[in-house]
Amino acid sequence: xxxxxxxxxxxxxxxxxxxxxxxxxxxxxxxxxxxxxxxxxxxxxxxxxxxxxxxxxxxxxxxxxxxxxxxxxxxxxxxxxxxxxxxxxxxxxxxxxxxxxxxxxxxxxxxxxxxxxxxxxxxxxxxxxxxxxxxxxxxxxxxxxxxxxxxxxxxxxxxxxxxxxxxxxxxxxxxxxxxxxxxxxxxxxxxxxxxxxxxxxxxxxxxxxxxxxxxxxxxxxxxxxxxxxxxxxxxxxxxxxxxxxxxxxxxxxxxxxxxxxxxxxxxxxxxxxxxxxxxxxxxxxxxxxxxxxxxxxxxxxxxxxxxxxxxxxxxxxxxxxxxxxxxxxxxxxxxxxxxxxxxxxxxxxxxxxxxxxxxxxxxxxxxxxxxxxxxxxxxxxxxxxxxxxxxxxxxxxxxxxxxxxxxxxxxxxxxxxxxxxxxxxxxxxxxxxxxxxxxxxxxxxxxxxxxxxxxxxxxxxxxxxxxxxxxxxxxxxxxxxxxxxxxxxxxxxxxxx
Length: 497
Fold this sequence. Notes:
Layout: H1 3-33, H2 36-56, H3 61-67, H4 76-100, H5 102-108, H6 114-121, H7 124-128, H8 134-140, H9 144-167, H10 173-194, H11 211-254, H12 259-279, H13 287-313, H14 315-323, H15 331-340, H16 348-354, H17 358-383, H18 386-411, H19 422-443, H20 450-472, H21 477-492
């Protein structure tokens, strides 16, 4: 990516980090104040919301990044307003559905306490769905610093509103949900204030993009979202339904990738979609797009691979430091999720959407969803362990990545292997595995407090990986130059591999 794109991705990454903080810090605190049953109920509320969110967003968040770069800047606010009206409508339907269908949902998840919890939570969708377009708006105008401001402010507010009623006033998960509702209201107001900032001083005129064009673009993404909902929710459903709330609590705490990984991937995808949309002339991937593609993969691997590999070597340490010793059993799910993450650095979604192959994109989601459901039913009935359900889910998703890359290679008339810098990725992965193994061997020699050990292991890993980068010629100069500029880089160049 260009230096400008790298900086823009960094702003999104900073905001994404705070989004993940909400998903991790709040559970870290709440898991220590609720018993496993109540905590499992709270996590199931979030599971229901995040699952249905995939459907009710209707594929529209990506419409901002697709349409805005293709139109005159004067039409931008008209596009934004048109999409916002759709989000308000979808959010209202979503909120009403949560309230009305709370009882059937609770029966499906075999937890009757979900009825009241979901009804208290029901105002959230209509408040938060209209904020979904901010990332696409700011990425399109290369003003992602506004997005970082919004995300940091609102996520800190959400954490405070969720945990203060519990920690300071001994509230239950219901009080935590009410706090979440209040934070969602403030978030909605703030989003509408910020939305017009990138267009300050720009005269507006009506867009020639119709609702029909929007839906033509969004419908395949809706279907992809529907199948994506099944892909993401299937393991949660099978584990929650067949193994109970306590196992679900173990699973939900561990079945995630190290937050910085999602932060980097989502940031890069958000920047690449408007870039590819701007570049696309209907003839596939040109030289400029190919250069951006390869650069983004290599940079992603340099940042993401060390994090994932460290997580795989020290899962129990990470889980117990985050959630307490009773959640040591979450570590197996953490390993499964982070191993599969090695395959998700390939930015297939932005280019598939930008070149208009949304139907193919949706079809591959459908194939993967069917495979996951069928194989997880077999896993539940034959192997009958929750870990098997998690492993089946991730294997299917890795297969999905390879199917998507094959589809891209066909669309662009390129060899699939020419789209993957295999040599570079292999060198980076080898270095991180060696660093992880040597760090693990060193840490086995010490018996320290778990929090001290976490810091010591991170320090060892960074030092060993730093040395290996010099030995194996893994360069980070380009990444640092994107932020420091040539003058500062000249002074630091000798210290950066």
